[in-house]
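Memo to structure team: turn this sequence into structure tokens by end of day. - J.P.
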Amino acid sequence: MELKDFPLEEFLNYLSVEKGLASNSIDAYRQDLRQYGEFLAKRKVINLGRVKREEIVQFLLREKERGLQTPSLARRLVAVKLFHRFLVKEGRLREDITSVLESPRLWKKLPQFLTMNEMDKILEAPKPKSEVGVRDQALLEILYATGMRVSEVANLKRENVNLESGFLKCRGKGDKERIVPIGQVAIGALKSYFEKRAKTKNVHVSSEFVFIGTQGRALTRQRIWQIIRRCAKQAKIQKKITPHTFRHSFATHLLERGADLRIVQELLGHADIATTQIYTHVSRDHLKAVHSKFHPRP
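Reply from structure team:
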């Protein structure tokens, strides 16, 4: 039995043309939704207008039983939610029954992030007297100030950094560009790095990339990860820290201090706000902890 009016290719074309998603993402959504369509067909649901929330939950539970991990389950649900939202937008469905479904990513694992005190310690770990030290300090400050992905930082070019205006331009997933504010502390760290780099005898100082090694090549993602691990060790932080920990910390600290979720979505370069909403759960945990600590009747 096959589903009637299951416009998969139309939806994928919409994601490609209107949303600008990369081919890898399109292929992932195609796989997810084929599994979804096959599941509904086996349950003899022949019309998407008759799908119930319980059936979507059952689909996710079946995928979990098949061995899918939480990130893959979350992607399955995002695909289904985007598909149903598209169908409502196109007038094929009257309501979006997926709007109240919570991502499986939130069921167990919340993102690892640093407290503000831990962040201060790791940012103070590099020794800015040497060229490498001043570079590493600027690198960490930029990671925390912007919430950029490690690949975005690794590929950041000097022409895309405007210290006067306090903004930089980076390319994210799907080759999308976004403008991100830097902040005065990070600007100061970058200025110190550029000044130190200009005075060095290294013939590669003219490299177009912001963060370079001794041979003038852009730092790789692996090298950035090694720098962060070394600085975390110097700061005596026991948590497992990766470049993405800075991104998680950036978003969490903004929300804890009252930032609007959609602004954080824009700064992170998330195509869908559902991806950003995971941080609201972290923020709620923070609010509960503060309430418990300071309320006279916790």
